[in-house]
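Question thread 4412

I'm putting together a teaching handout and wanted feedback from people who do this every day. The idea is simple: show students a protein as raw sequence, then show them the structure tokens that encode its fold, then repeat with a second protein so they can compare. Below is the first pair exactly as I plan to print it.
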Amino acid sequence: MKNIFLAFLVMFFMSGCFKGSGQVEVSATKDDSVIYVDGEKKGMLSSGSTVIKIEEGEHTIKVVKHTKEWDYEGQKKIFVGTDTSSKVKIDMKASVTQYRKEKLKKERLAKIAKEKRETFTDSATGLMWQDSSYQRRKLWRDAVDYCKNTHYAGYDDWRLPKKEELETIIDKDNTPRVIKGFNNIESKCYWSSTPYIDENTAWVAVFYYEGYMAPSGYNNIGTYVTCVRNK
């Protein structure tokens, strides 16, 4: 009887202390990630996948990768059987590091500061004009949408100027034919939001020759754009 009891104790401790194990092939969306099993580091993920040995039972596998601007992390619960082989693929989610947040903030503030330098406020009308050094042609409908949706110099209430508003900045004595204060308006035609006959034509400001407002024959021809807002 004593021997049977001792044998039972040995089997009990053997079953608790010497669990079986299995192999798990871990893959994730980012190489060079650190693999953790139940919070304990188990290896590095490289060349697409890494095989690790895990004790029998339920476990949480977590993969982590830290870079200067991004943190990547993902995890998955699995059950490992004795003398088994299995595969697990973990999707990793990205989050922005504090360094990148500060970097983006500085870039955004620098962009706003540059754009503010490239505006002109007309004291005669109180209108603030976009005076961007980035001058590109747009179709009329694209120009309307561009001004409506642009976030420039920290403001989001820009619009394509009316015919009467563009007339206030024409100056026949300057070249280009625009009032003093603008630095980037070119000797080109610029869209107004005012249709000429219908939605297929619109008025444009002509900042060359004598400087005047003219009807554009077609709204499907690219013309330059400057946006305006009420100060």
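The second pair follows. I'd like the answer to focus on this one:
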Amino acid sequence: MNEAAVKPNVEEICRPLRDFQRASVEYAFRRLYQDSDKIDRFLVADEVGLGKTWVAKGVIAHAVERLWDTKDRIDVLYICSNAEIARQNINRLNLGERREDAFASRLTLLPLHLGDLNARKVNFISFTPATSLEFGTSSGARRERAVLYWLLSEIWDLRGAGPKNVLQATAGLRSWRNLLDEVQGDLEQQDGFAPIVVERFTEELRADPSLLAEFERLCELFGRARLHVPPDERRQRNELIAKLRRALARSCLAIFEPDLIILDEFQRFRNLLQGEDEAAQLAQRLFTSSGSKILLLSATPYKMYTVSAETDGDDHYRDFLLTCGFLLPKPQVEALEQELMTYRVREHPRTAATAPTLVRGRRPARRHAALRALLPLHDARREHRPAGACASTVGPPHTGGSGKADSEPDLRAAGPAHSYARQPQRQAGSALVLGSALAT
């Protein structure tokens, strides 16, 4: 462990924050880490330009300080949809001045960085779903394939040119061989792959014996280097490489359990939150890592109010419930859906014959109380907000033992900024929070 590591000064890191941002940081941290009914997933939703990234940095600072004396290594994972934004924001979120503590990479390249990660007290890592979780039939990046080559060489005892030619894919011969030598040098500097990496990847390979059989067949087919590969052989090669990349990704998830995961503008990859495809399954394994907390950031956590002529195939009501589904146990989401349907039928009967729709309109007191019970709200105090800006909504209400929520919520039709939190089903008293940020 790096003895030069210095515990972050939370007060200094949070000093530049505006009052409403600081209130958001303190409340989110309290609900994630301190309260007796603390939660694992928390959504901070605010309008563009009001500093969600800086709020996230404040939460990170508090989390690192809390974990400092109990964890040998603290990992913060930042996920967003754009690689350039990932590289930019991971350095903004870094608590120190050492840029080497923060790096943008791919999940499947972690075996090259594990030595460095173990040598540092705090690590900031960024991924994008497209490069780390969605494989399709792509052969991936060259360095990724070089890692595969050396791992497979250790496990399957690769010999001859065939394995190198298979994993070369579309790279040039000279540059590919040079990259293999470069990655081998990197591995020698860290005394090879960590045993846990080899062990987990071996387990993945043994779980699917067809991988070895297909690899050996293609090694015979690609026994010599060729400038032109027939399309069918190229397809078979790429499909196998994609399967090997998936197996490597699964093995990396087994050894990488981040302490805090930041999902920035998660609505851009919301299919990963509750989808059923392979990418979603990988993501959900990551999100359910033991001890991990998740902080979601979004200006549009679900599609806002639309009329039927504006939907373009999107259903904002269903989108809202799907967002809730990631943050709440299933029974509570079902209760919420039923209460919203009751509200719509009883108070707005004309909309009952149409597709389910969150409606704007007068707030019926008799349904308001029932909805508010399912959607307890918390709103950063309006007086802390920049003039004309929507509220930063930061988490579930907490009674503090008084039996009353910290602030009186204001439930309106779907507004531009909302906040949710989830308590795992294994804990009692789970709660969803929807903080309305409509200006009045």
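Top answer:
Good format. For the second protein you could add a caption like this: Residues 10-133+259-422 form a domain with the Rossmann fold fold (CATH 3.40.50.300). The radius of gyration is 25 Å.
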